[in-house]
Design goal:
The structure is a homodimer.
Chain A lengths: L6 H15 L6 H8 L6 H4 L3 H24 L6 H18 L7 H9 L4 H27 L9 H22 L3 H14 L2
Helix pairs in contact in A: 1-2, 1-4, 4-5, 4-7, 5-7, 5-9, 6-7, 7-8, 8-9
Chain lengths: ~190, ~190
């Protein structure tokens, strides 16, 4: 058995398993076995499975931000193109996972929002943060005259995030990126074009 | 203890629990206890928890169809109004549940699509059936000249269903029907108007 596994390794293994199987179906023992960590270690790092789940969510959020932030912040591109590319990089990753796993925010949203108020609040913060970033780009696009839509940027941004999460849901069932390609087409080649 | 509980009662109790807690977190024992049915009865009716889950999904689909079908089939209304009302009745039900539970198709889609090919196929069929019904209304609206959009009805219908499921997801996290009201506004007062 390997020794000296860090908290980070347990969280990384947990992310992989929870993305695949969900939070409730992933047992702590399975995580520790896969991470090759002795049972006792878990409670050195986490007071509960819920606290662990929040650390896993944080890791997912930072991994996703590392993917989309470079596009969101690329000021050489117009704001709507930055937004489009920030979604396309997530779609490419999902496709690389054979249209499985998906978005941990969405997965936990449906599984845990009614079960844990702590999870629900953290997920709400994550969604609102994402929506805020997109709303800022929409506002910028509106100031540039690139969007002429009579709807508040934050409302439109929430609609876009909801549609993306829903398209991921359909894509996960269909095992096809088609719903996600249609999401891109609908917003970036029709509605916002 | 009450006796002579039917299969239907076990399925109804299962629907309530699985909508609230998810499939994996709902144990057979908890269902039987809540339905007040002796343990042995379960396997008189179902060969496995998966088979039971499919019966629960079927019950959910028939309950939802009973809600939206009267609106979808009300030919006194124009097709887009029929569609709008078919969504609004689902939103009213969700609101009546304090923005919890949500749609069993969406919940199981994210929880079970990667875990059970049998579930995935049944969920895919359910989504495709729903999309097909909406596509027929969009086609009718196009023939009436009520919609002038350069997109295949079935592609637009898939986009609408995805956006609705995503709005439900956001609403479940936010514990507010706002994302669903925005879904209605976006499609029926802006994009399709």
């Amino acid at each position: 058995m390997k020794r000296a596994h860090s908290k980070d390794e347990i969280v990384q293994t947990g992310l992989d398993l929870i993305l695949s199987k969900g939070f409730n179906a992933t047992g702590i023992e399975a995580i520790l076995k896969q991470a090759n960590v002795p049972k006792g270690s878990f409670y050195n790092f986490f007071s509960s499975k819920e606290e662990f789940g929040l650390a896993v969510l944080d890791l997912f959020l930072s991994e996703m931000a590392a993917l989309w932030r470079p596009f969101m912040e690329d000021v050489s591109l117009p704001p709507l193109m930055r937004m489009r590319k920030s979604f396309e990089v997530l779609i490419t990753r999902f496709e690389g996972n054979n249209c499985s796993k998906g978005c941990l925010i969405g997965n936990l949203a449906l599984e845990m929002s009614d079960q844990s108020e702590v999870f629900r609040k953290r997920l709400d913060d994550a969604l609102q943060g994402w929506i805020g970033s997109l709303a800022a780009l929409l506002e910028e696009a509106r100031e540039d005259g690139a969007v002429h839509i009579d709807i508040e940027p934050v409302v439109l941004a929430e609609n876009i995030v909801a549609s993306f999460e829903g398209a991921l849901l359909c894509a996960k069932v269909k095992k096809s990126v088609e719903p996600l390609k249609n999401f891109i087409h609908f917003y970036f080649e029709m509605f916002l074009a």
